[in-house]
Specification:
The complex is a heterodimer of chains A (156) and B (299).
Chain A: H1 2-24, H2 31-41, E1 49-50, H3 53-59, E2 67-74, E3 83-89, H4 92-113, H5 121-124, E4 128-132, E5 135-140, H6 144-155
Antiparallel strand pairs in A: 1-2, 2-3, 3-5, 4-5
Helix pairs in contact in A: 2-6
Chain B: H1 18-43, E1 114-118, H2 120-127, E2 135-138, E3 153-154, E4 160-161, H3 163-167, E5 174-178, H4 189-206, E6 211-215, H5 222-227, H6 233-250, E7 253-255, H7 281-292
Parallel strand pairs in B: 1-2, 1-5, 5-6, 6-7
Antiparallel strand pairs in B: 3-4
Helix pairs in contact in B: 4-6
The chains are: A alpha+beta (156), B alpha/beta (299).
């Protein structure tokens, strides 16, 4: 009898564990590898540089507790508004905050480029901005089709 | 049977005056050091004098070589500099209204307490990690008009500030300003100089003890200049002449950085710039090579 009870309990625990894994929705994305793939496969009109931590921190003012990992590539010098920002937030609430920062970054770039290089407004008015689970991805380029595909493939 | 060699007692008293010789060596050593220190002080060799005041920022990433930092009132003192590089002549005086002449090369540590202020071109110093020990306060698209009132710099809390408000949090010994690339196309010369002068006044008032270097507007490529007359290099040169006059009036220094970039056509080399105005990392190296060899004496 005891063996039966224990067996049922164990089966129940395993079922819950599997269910838990299934419901998290968070695949583990290698942001460095994704960034490298994007640099290789998306067509950009300018040279993008992988930004250092301090530069990322000045473009996206996030709380370090909100972000587990990130990779940001940008032109950054003003020649174009091309940028790729990949974030893994620490929680879904943090992901909401990072999403808002990404929206804010788009607005900052619009302010910078509106009268400076108006042609860049095309990509700023049609950004690829995705939030899924704890991941927030932003892509600014003229190659949205490829950018969307790579984002979606990474998050499947 | 081998012959034993007589043992010589080298410690016998009276055979060698060790103590007096030792004293003489020590005295001569101190004398030499004193002469060398006095000579170097007179020559104003920045790289070899011991540090006299501490003003380094917290973001030092270079090796800890000593750096000399004298008060700004010494800017016109005479000096001889036998240890300067052979390509530069001895600087005896630096005038306002004249580009800073070539000087002895300083190390990267010179920029530990330097701040760079400007537009997208200056932003590149940070983006390309050219001089990570320096402070950079810059914003893409800023021009002499918008720099006076637009809140474009975000602080650590995400609050937006104007450039001058953001500069308030720092105490740089040297401030390098570069504006005008945005503006030369749509601001007439008098308006640009008036606005630029207002910004320089704000910086001087906020940082009265800092050395202020105003840098020239940089040239554009021949293709850009030929394709858009608003950006002709002759026009940029004309604006730079007006900026020199402004620096004389405001009593700040002028750095003719443009000369480090110009090719035989007086333009930015095409291979260095994908869009005719912004340039790649090798040109940031050229920029800092110029800055390292054009500094105020004893700064």
């Amino acid at each position: 009898m005891l063996k039966k009870v224990l067996g049922i309990l164990l089966a129940g625990c395993m079922l819950l564990a599997v269910a838990g894994c299934g419901s998290s929705g968070d695949k583990n994305v290698d942001l460095d590898a994704l960034g490298a793939t994007i640099m290789e496969k998306v067509t950009f009109t300018s040279q993008l540089t992988k930004l250092t931590d301090s530069v990322v921190g000045s473009f996206y003012v996030f709380d370090s507790a909100d972000v587990d990992d990130y990779v940001v590539y940008a032109n950054g010098t003003g020649a174009t508004a091309e940028e790729v920002a990949l974030f893994k937030a620490s929680s879904s609430e943090a992901a909401d905050r990072i999403y808002k920062l990404a929206q804010s970054r788009i607005e900052d770039l619009k302010f910078q480029f509106e009268n400076y290089v108006p042609a860049e407004m095309t990509k700023l008015n049609d950004p690829v901005l995705v939030k899924q689970g704890n991941y927030v991805f932003l892509g600014l380029s003229n190659d949205n089709e490829q950018m969307k595909k790579l984002f979606n493939d990474a998050l499947k | 049977m081998s012959k034993k060699m007589p043992r010589v007692n080298r410690n016998q008293k009276g055979s060698f005056p060790a103590l007096p010789v030792l004293i003489l060596v020590i005295v001569l050593g101190f004398l030499s050091f004193g002469i060398a220190a006095a000579w170097q002080k007179l020559s104003g060799d920045d790289e070899k004098l011991p540090k006299q005041s501490s003003s380094q920022s917290a973001s030092v990433s270079e090796s800890s070589q000593p750096e000399n930092s004298l008060p700004e009132s010494s800017i016109s003192e005479e000096q001889s500099s036998p240890q300067q590089s052979s390509s530069s002549q001895a600087i005896t005086e630096v005038e306002f209204g004249v580009p800073i002449p070539e000087s002895a090369r300083v190390r990267s540590e010179y920029f530990d307490d330097a701040m760079f202020v400007g537009d997208s071109i200056t932003t590149g110093i940070k983006v390309y990690d050219v001089m990570s020990n320096a402070t950079v306060i810059a914003s893409t698209g800023i021009n002499p008009d918008t720099i006076l009132h637009s809140k474009v710099i975000k602080d650590a809390n995400g609050n937006a500030k104007t450039v001058i408000d953001a500069m308030k949090d720092y105490q740089p010994k040297k401030i390098y300003i570069m504006l005008g690339a945005n503006g030369v196309a749509f601001l007439d010369k008098e308006t640009m100089i008036d606005l630029y002068g207002q910004f320089v006044d704000l910086v001087k008032a906020q940082h009265p003890d800092s050395i202020i270097y105003v840098q020239s507007i940089l040239p554009v490529t021949k293709e850009k200049a030929d394709g858009d007359s608003r950006y002709s290099n002759a026009k940029i040169d004309e604006y730079n002449q007006a900026i020199i006059e402004m620096t004389k009036q405001k009593q700040v220094y002028y750095l003719n950085v443009a000369e480090a970039f110009k090719d035989e056509n007086g333009a930015l080399p095409s291979e260095g710039s994908p869009d005719g105005m912004h340039f790649n990392p090798p040109y940031y190296t050229k920029w800092f090579d110029y800055l390292k060899t054009h500094t105020l004496p004893n700064s």
